[in-house]
Amino acid sequence: MNQVKVIISNDQKEVKIPSGIRLLIRRCCHAVLEEEGFTDNAEVSVRFVDNETIHALNREYRNVDRETDVLSFPLGENGEYDTNLDTGAKLLGDIVISVEKAVEQSEMYNHTLQREIGFLTVHSMLHLLGYDHEDGGIEEVRMREKEETVLTKIGLKRDNSYYMEEE
Predict the structure, then answer these.
(1) Which helix (H) or strand (E) holds 121?
(2) What is the pLDDT of residue 164?
(3) Running DSSP on this structure, what letter comes out for residue 17?
(4) Could you list the pLDDT tens digit for every one of the 167 residues in the chain?
(5) Angle CA 144–56–83, to nearest 5
(6) For 146-150, which contacts have Cβ atoms below 8 Å and span 24 or more sequence positions?
(7) How far are the Cα atoms of 36, 40, 56, 96, 157 from residue 52, in angstroms, in the given order?
(8) Using CA of residue 11, residue 13, residue 15, residue 19, what is the dihedral sign?
(9) For 107, phi and psi rounded to 5 degrees?
(10) How does DSSP assign 27-77, residue by residue?
(11) Cα–Cα dist 117/25, whole Å
(12) Terminus-to-terminus CA distance in the chain, angstroms?
């Protein structure tokens, strides 16, 4: 695999970003592209936001009037991507992560914030490469398997089930 430029911006003040998160995100992006056999130079943008901002984006771009954990904005389709004319890198798209939501979910699922942000990054990278789980079925299973494969390879193997007992 060639070079992957990951541009990370923090546009929220609700949660202090732990040290090592930026490196983790870069590792996740690299690992997904490696697992998928993506050999071109690539660029990805990752933006940290708060719940209010991701709620507004979710409403504007998906017509869903609630906050969510992560949004993916792919710049390609069917393996065809725009190219940065200066670098020749394929522009994969943008990932927007609600850090507040990631904290909530890490507590809910009883794992680290690093594991949650790693999962959200891998999940979103797969969306940027054309994977989808919205209709469920085999596509959702395939995507979940790929997520866990990548997370295990970078040392973020799932320790707990995501099953939660109802109170």
Answers:
(1) helix 113-128
(2) 41
(3) P
(4) 578 999 999 999 999 999 899 999 999 999 999 999 999 999 999 999 999 999 999 999 999 999 999 999 999 888 889 999 999 999 999 999 999 999 999 999 999 999 999 999 999 999 999 998 777 678 888 899 999 999 999 998 765 444 444 44
(5) 60
(6) 146/35, 147/119, 147/122, 147/123, 149/35, 150/28, 150/31, 150/32, 150/35, 150/122
(7) 33, 35, 6, 12, 30
(8) positive
(9) -70, -40
(10) HHHHHHHHHTT--S-EEEEEEEE-HHHHHHHHHHHH---S--SEEEEESEE
(11) 8
(12) 47
Amino acid at 51: N
The closest alpha carbon to 81, from 37, 128, 29, 143, belongs to: 128
- For residue 71, the one-letter residue type is L
- The one-letter code for the residue type at 90 is K
Q: What does the DSSP 8-state code read for residue 166? A: -
Query: Which two structure tokens, joined as six digits, stand for 82?
Result: 């725009």
